[in-house]
Write a structure and sequence with these properties.
The protein is an alpha+beta fold. It is built from 22 helices and 23 strands. The strands form five sheets. Strands 1, 2, 5, 6, 7, 10, 12 and 13 form an eight-stranded mixed beta sheet that branches. It has a six-stranded antiparallel β-barrel with strand order 17-18-20-21-22-23. Helix 2 packs across helix 3, helix 19 packs parallel to helix 21 and helix 20 crosses helix 21.
Length: about 775
């Protein structure tokens, strides 16, 4: 696994572990109400299994490699199996590259896959489609609003109840407590809220929602459920509507030419006042925030770079754009180029919305000389004095060299090689964070007999059977809460006997309303049962009240903090690259020139020079001339025989050095590239282009001294050669002190060594000397 891939997966694992540990802490905290609530709605066994599975996942993520341990019966089985897939090096990659050849360049598109988002979308869809979570697929804006309305109604009932057991406890209190408890029971029996709370969905997402239940684990919802409050300027709206109506009325009353077009325009404004004078900024912001969150999660892949690499171009100078904040005034001086070359400037890492242009600033003609030749010309005075001291015969050489001087060139082939760079992209982990709240455990209290309600009948026996608070007492005694409360049965039976007599002696007029009957019964009940109610029933009732009140608060918090989950998620891709490349082709004309270019970055109306480039161009040369000094190691002996007045005189001279002028032929690698800046050899053009074959003559007597050899250019501009020195050798036949025959042959003296420069430079030096 490469380092970048490993780091991304490591961060992913740590993020999942962090979520699991946070949820685990909440589920194991007995001091908070949530744990009892979870046990009630899910059952003890499901709650315990959930905690065990979370601990198992934490242990698996802490080990290397990750191993799947949960069974299919677990609520977190899908989570376990998906983690095994995403953490398998051979099954999931965080990047994709698309390579293709497009004309003159090779395009490399680098796509980054967001591991966390891809995982979250896959997990969400797998959980969403399970049959057990059908209630969530039915959840929409309408039924969600109904859940909120019902929760608000329950809250109103809770607010009517006494806050503490110290308050006055009456039969009316019992009735209110019963109504609240009965309403909650009905609220949870088979309705949508009950299904949402009990569905496996809540347990499948509890690890991601921080240990608290949320109907929607995602940071975005469907747009229809977003309804932020708006504010309308009523005064402006009123005046606007009056103005539009008055304008229309006037148009109808006075328009005699039926200007339909104008009437339609004015009519179109009718009813638009509310739209014009209503502040929808909160709604727009909420919609924008929701869309941003949606894109942040669903955008699984994005193109981070589209790299373009020129094909088969060795002279591609890669420029990495680094967002400069001031103009670049430094000039990057490149090597010289042959007219056979193709010069390309690919600019990489240009941000989205930026483009670059290559602007030619200069294209000046220059001499086709190397740096060495230029240096020699600059110091020609000193060189001329040296040459004068070495050779007195330079006068004749000037004429010979000047006559021979003149450029000649042949075009040679160029070799192109393809290159492909390695592309490295950096991405950062954009994991979504969710904060969620939960709700407490609801105690499933058995409903008591319906003794709180009062019938409208006048018969005492019917009323007594329906209002008898003893039935209420017996019902409460059946509750688990009452079993822990000490119950005085003797007191209860004594009160019951006295109470029955009091009820039997009641005179209830038939004309009494339901409320009047209820009040009479409550007064008698409170008189006889006050002590019993306060000692035995009140603690139970207030325990139920407190739990119901707490439950409603948590339900409201869950509903208020949740949103409607979207349907199946579909991953999206941003195909507009974050960075991109642009390729610029520079001029390489059929002439010797010096160029200067500016690379300019453009964004909207702003521009900035971020690079300056300078280079020169020249032809390659097959033929060149040189002149300079030559030295022959083997002595060259010349005999000159003269006859005068019957006397024969033999004059022998030895010659080792002299001036020379020569033609050089460069057969390799396209010929000599004079603009080469390297002294020994350029890596681009190689050593071979400087190897030459030499044919020249030396002075004095150029026709009698022929040089043929092999050499190498340093600079270029300084030619060092060695080879064979062919010189003419004269033979004389003498008889009776008279020359009877003369013949000539060419002999070879080896080796010679020559050091030459551009003839023009040498001529310049000699001209300076002749002044």
């Amino acid at each position: 696994m490469d380092t970048m891939h490993g780091n991304i997966k490591k961060a992913f694992v740590e993020a999942i572990k962090e979520d699991l540990v946070l949820a685990n802490n909440i589920l194991n905290d007995t001091a908070i109400r949530e744990t009892d609530f979870y046990k009630t709605i899910w059952g003890d066994s499901a709650f315990t299994r959930l905690k065990e599975d979370i601990n198992s996942l934490i242990a698996s993520l802490s080990a290397t490699p990750f191993k799947q341990t949960l069974t299919a019966s677990s609520d977190l089985y899908i989570l376990d199996s998906l983690l095994a897939f995403y953490l398998d090096e051979n099954k999931w990659k965080f990047y994709k590259t698309v390579d293709k050849e497009e004309g003159k360049y090779y395009s490399i598109t680098l796509k980054i896959i967001d591991l966390a988002n891809d995982f979250l979308i896959n997990y969400y869809n797998r959980i969403y489609v399970t049959p057990e979570n059908a209630a969530y697929r039915k959840l929409n804006v309408e039924n969600y609003q109904e859940i909120i309305r019902q929760a608000n109604e329950l809250q109103k009932i809770v607010h009517e109840m006494p806050a503490t057991p110290k308050d006055s406890f009456t039969i009316a209190t019992l009735n209110k407590a019963y109504r609240l408890h009965e309403s909650i029971s009905q609220f949870l029996q088979g309705n949508l809220l009950s299904k949402l709370l009990k569905a496996p969905w809540t347990r499948s997402w509890i690890w991601k929602t921080g240990g608290y239940i949320r109907f929607n684990p995602l940071p975005f919802t469907i747009e229809e459920s977003i309804n932020e409050p708006s504010k309308t300027d009523s005064a402006k709206l009123r005046y606007y509507n009056r103005y539009v109506e008055a304008t229309l009325e006037k148009r109808i009353a006075t328009d005699s030419v039926m200007n339909i077009t104008t009437f339609k325009e004015e009519l179109a404004q009718y009813g638009k006042g509310k739209e014009l004078f209503t502040d929808l900024s909160k709604q727009k912001k909420a919609l924008n925030d929701n869309e941003a969150a949606r894109k942040r999660i669903l955008q699984v892949s994005r193109v981070v770079n589209n790299v373009k690499v020129p094909l088969a171009v060795p002279n591609a100078y890669y420029i990495l754009y680094s967002s400069p904040n001031e103009e670049d005034k430094d000039i990057r001086r490149l090597q010289a180029f042959s007219i056979d070359d193709k010069l390309v400037f690919p600019v990489h890492n240009l941000p989205k919305g930026h483009r670059s242009v290559l602007i030619k600033k200069k294209a000046d003609l220059i001499k086709d000389q190397s740096d060495v030749q230029i240096a020699i010309d600059e110091h020609i005075d000193q060189i001329a004095q040296i040459a004068l001291a070495l050779q007195p015969a330079l006068g004749f050489a000037i004429k010979q060299i000047t006559a021979l001087n003149g450029p000649f060139n042949l075009k040679g082939p160029s070799t192109l090689t393809a290159i492909r760079p390695s592309v490295v992209a950096d991405i950062s982990d954009n994991r979504a964070e969710f904060l969620h709240e939960g709700k407490i455990r609801f105690e499933d209290i058995k409903s008591s007999d319906d003794f709180w309600t009062v019938a409208s009948g006048a018969a005492k026996n019917v009323i007594m059977s329906q209002l008898n608070p003893l039935n209420s007492a017996y019902s409460f005694m059946k509750l688990p809460e009452l079993q822990s409360i000490e119950f005085d049965s003797g007191l209860f039976m004594s009160v019951k006997a006295d109470y029955s007599k009091a009820i039997e002696s009641l005179f209830i007029p038939k004309k009494f309303s339901k409320k009047q009957v209820q009040k009479m019964i409550e007064e008698v009940t409170e008189k006889y049962f006050k002590q019993f109610l306060e000692k035995n029933i009140a603690p139970v009732v207030f325990n139920v009240i407190n739990k119901d009140n707490s439950y409603i608060e948590i339900v409201k918090k869950v509903v208020k903090g949740s949103t409607v989950p979207p349907g199946l998620l579909k991953a999206e891709s941003d195909n507009e690259p974050v960075y991109h490349s642009e390729i610029h082709y520079a001029d390489v004309e059929d002439s010797t020139k010096k160029y200067e270019y500016d690379l300019v970055n453009i964004k909207d109306k702003d521009s900035l020079v971020f690079g300056r480039i300078s280079y020169s161009t020249s032809k390659r040369r097959r033929i060149q001339f040189s002149s300079g000094l030559v030295y022959t190691i083997t002595p060259v002996i010349r005999n000159n025989v003269t006859e005068e007045n019957g006397q024969i005189t033999v004059d022998s001279k030895e010659q080792r050095y002299g001036l020379y002028v020569a033609l050089h032929f460069y057969p390799f690698n396209g010929g000599l590239f004079v603009q080469d800046k390297e002294f020994v050899a350029n890596r681009k053009y190689g050593v071979a282009n400087r190897i030459n074959f030499m044919l020249g003559v030396s002075f004095p007597d150029p026709l009698e001294n022929i040089l043929f050899g092999l050499g190498y250019d340093f600079g270029p501009g300084i030619k060092l050669n060695t080879g064979l020195h062919f010189y003419r050798y004269d033979k004389f036949e003498v008889f009776n002190n008279a020359i009877t025959n003369k013949s000539s042959i060419y002999r070879i003296a080896v080796p010679f060594v020559s050091l030459g420069i551009d003839p023009a430079s040498l001529v310049k030096a000699l001209n300076i000397f002749n002044k």
